[in-house]
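Design job #97: recover the sequence.
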């Protein structure tokens, strides 16, 4: 009887040890995966012009991006689109503010038009990136690169409209700061799209 009890106890102890090892291994795996994704994003962002902004804007999506260059580029385009849309909305509101000079209102309206084009170009890029296929990869990636490059040009045109001595300093600073940020995000997104293209070249 005592031998049987000891035998059962020993088997039970082995099961507990095995289960504990499995749990520890699984936990270690869950902890390791996000770190790998984060390091992948950090390494990929090192090839962009605005490295810190790249990492800060994309690292929160590490669990979704994992180690996929396509998902990374896709996320960068989505983050850029979201920022452009919020900036455009801010400028529409700002253009209706009292006390602005006609020149400032005109510059804002022109900029909102440019950003509308940017939004359209980014949306097309995101859609194309989500549907990219092997046989048409080259053609589709070229379309994306063209659209993102055009978006960057639109943003620079918008920024240029706020140069000059007849602009309110506070308005110019606020707007240009936002435009510079989205231009930097767009530049980073284009670099990540180019990186993705080079891996499949």
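Job complete. Output follows.
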């Amino acid at each position: 009887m005592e031998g049987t009890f000891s035998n059962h106890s020993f088997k039970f102890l082995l099961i507990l040890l095995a289960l504990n090892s499995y749990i520890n291994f699984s936990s270690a795996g869950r902890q390791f995966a996000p770190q790998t994704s984060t390091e992948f994003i950090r390494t990929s962002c090192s090839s962009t012009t605005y490295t810190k902004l790249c990492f800060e804007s994309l690292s929160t999506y590490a669990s979704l991006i994992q180690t996929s260059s396509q998902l990374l580029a896709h996320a960068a385009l989505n983050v850029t689109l979201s920022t452009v849309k919020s900036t455009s909305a801010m400028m529409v509101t700002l253009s209706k503010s009292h006390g602005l000079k006609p020149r400032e209102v005109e510059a804002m309206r022109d900029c909102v038009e440019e950003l509308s084009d940017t939004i359209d170009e980014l949306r097309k890029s995101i859609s194309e990136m989500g549907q990219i296929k092997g046989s048409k990869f080259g053609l589709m990636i070229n379309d994306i690169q063209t659209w993102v490059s055009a978006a960057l040009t639109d943003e620079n045109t918008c920024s240029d409209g706020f140069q000059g001595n007849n602009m309110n300093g506070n308005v110019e600073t606020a707007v240009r700061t936002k435009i510079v940020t989205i231009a930097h995000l767009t530049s980073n997104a284009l670099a990540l799209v180019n990186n993705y293209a080079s891996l499949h070249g």
